[in-house]
Fold:
Amino acid sequence: MAPNDPTPTADHALTTKPKKARFAEARAWWNKAWDEGGTLHEMWEDVRRAPGAGWHGMANWIKALIAIAGASCVVLLFDGAVDALLTAMHRIFTAVPNVHVGNDTSTGIWATIDNPVRSYIAAHSAGLPISASTVYTVWQFTGLFALITGFATRNNGMRLTWSAWGFAGIAMVWTTTPDTSRTIATAIAVLAWTTASAFALRGLNLRPTVLASIHTGAPQITVQPQIHIPAQLDGTAPDNIHQPQP
Structure:
């Protein structure tokens, strides 16, 4: 039977002693850090002086924390804005009526261009993860955006987008229109695109710019100051004429 000895064993005493020693060291470090010139004391002084010091006068580590916090907020807001924008675009693109081959919904001259484009997109959108109506809406939005942006900003990228959009539309009209009226329909599409290009390609000049540089041979004038002493009454020339040194 084991004796009932309340005296702690040697192992328990050794375990308790290191814990007290570590606690004492941590408390000593804490007190030293808050003393005058300590790490925590200096950081607290930086925080206390920051409102009056302004951005240029505050400590660098405070600037870093503010920058990280601001960047995190911007990332969160941007992520939320992107999700909202994608959701809104998805609703807009899927809210249009379905596009089917032979679904002639346009009238007048515009039908000569629009119906072949609708039929081409509907016939070649099978297997895509999006519907033909979404493709048709993106097609219309791209052309309108390139037209307005090219007119307003004269950006070469938008002008190139408008040109590619027009060539692709003309090719769709040529491919889808029956042979009996293909030439007339394509000519109407070309005329409509070139007329709208007067706005989208506003200010575009295809003439090469020639920079002429004219060099005029301006004369170089050298100024050499001299002192002239008038001739003496006896006719002798003075011998004290000296050229001034620069």
Observations:
- The chain is about 65% helix and 0% strand.
- Residues 60-94 form the longest helix (35 residues).
- The mean pLDDT is 75.
- Residues 37-95 form one domain.
